[in-house]
Amino acid sequence: METIRNCAGIGYPAAGDTTGSAILSLFLAMSLHPEVQQRAQEELDSVCQSRMPEFSDRQNLPYINALCIEILRWSSTVPLAFPHTTVEDDYYNGLFIPARSIVMVDSFSMNFNEETYPQPHKFDPERFLSADRKTCVVSSASSAAFSFGKRKCPGRYLADAELFYIAASVLKWFTIKPQPGVVLPVRHEELFTSEIVSSPLPFKCMIQPRGEQHDALIKDAL
Ligand code: HEM
Predict the structure, then answer these.
(1) pTM summary value
(2) Which residue, judged by its Cα, is nearest atom 7 of ligand 1?
């Protein structure tokens, strides 16, 4: 009973801020990149026509999948993962790591490594598509955003499914735009907080239904 209670207890704080931050980052990225949003909506319209996206559509939505992975990379929600301690002396790539050392995973540097991700500050889902653009070549559950090893985020499959469904549903129904007259910054440090769980700094955007056909979809879903 205590184990069940503790699992539920840790799940809430571990899931809430991180998933919330990733979803806010979706709204921020779409406010900054109308060309990405338009391409995502074209893919959703061609696959789902006038109905809501479903999980079964996922394999036919490579650009939406790539967009979700790019959100996790670009927002780097948990930039240094959580600290861990070595229990015994160890060597890694020739480096001696004494027992009881604190080891941190620098996910931010991995996500912004320009050898892996050319122009790393650019928000570009294309980087995760195959050459023919028909397939998303990685799964978001394997993103560095969830860290590595035995203590890798156990909620990654849920987070991945939530982010996909929210991105697909929101972009099918709505267009996200910056508020008229508001110029959003572009530098990472001006867009996100610098905390254990990094989130978009407050920003204003408009969320507009995409048109009459989409108004009907929204009303049907209520
Ligand atoms: C976008 C969403 C999420 C991100 C970016 C994220 C990221 C992370 C990271 C980086 C860690 C640390 C791993 C490490 O210690 O090296 C972690 C741990 C954890 N996450 Fe997530 N997470 C997300 C969503 C979730 C969800 C939805 C759940 C549960 C429903 C969850 C449950 C946990 C738990 C329980 C731990 C601690 C695991 C342990 O210490 O062994 N996370 N997460």
Answers:
(1) 0.92
(2) 146
